[in-house]
Amino acid sequence: MAGSPIPHPVDTHVGALIRAHRRAAGVSQEELGKAIGLTFQQVQKYETGENRISASKLVEVARTLNVPISALFDGLDTGPDGENLIVRFTALRDASPFMQAAVELPDAIRAELFRLATVYAAEDGATS
After folding, report:
1. CATH assignment, 1-91
2. Cα dihedral sign, 89-73-41-2
3. How far is residue 62's CA from residue 30's CA, in Å, rounded to a whole number?
4. Domain boundaries, the chain
5. Could you report the per-residue pLDDT of 50-96, keeping only the tens digit for each?
6. Which residues contact 45 (CB under 8 A, 6 or more apart)?
């Protein structure tokens, strides 16, 4: 019995970035789908990497979310052992509200928040 094929890491990465930018824009899967002529189910499949998104749809997504097309490839590691931090982060339960809060903070406070997160992560890594 054959299972579902495993999504390609690039498709998963691009999908996670679509999800992150969609959430940051406050757009639902249904709203994005309607804007680009798809069902919310198809948007969901793109976001999980289950289905590959065509170049033309990727351009439509970027335009709809008002982001440069390159934003949908940010952080993509093309090396063989690259760790996909964006996919790991967006899979966290509280990622969406955290991202929304972070983009609404003044620059100085956001920079301090990121600095503190880096310090805590380094301390946790040193004690683990």
Report:
1. 1.10.260.40
2. negative
3. 16
4. 1-91, 95-128
5. 999 999 999 999 999 999 999 998 887 765 555 566 667 777 788 88
6. 51
Distance CA 103, CA 126 (A): 29
Place of tokens 């289905």: 51
Helical pair 95-104 and 9-24, crossing angle rounded to 10 deg? 50
How high is the pLDDT of residue 66? Answer: 95
Look up residue 48 and give its two tokens: 């999980």
Report how far residue 32's alpha carbon sits from residue 38's, in angstroms, rounded to the nearest whole number: 8
> What amino acid occupies position 102?
A
Sequence letter at residue 56: S
CA-CA distance, 76 to 94, in Å (whole number)?
Answer: 22
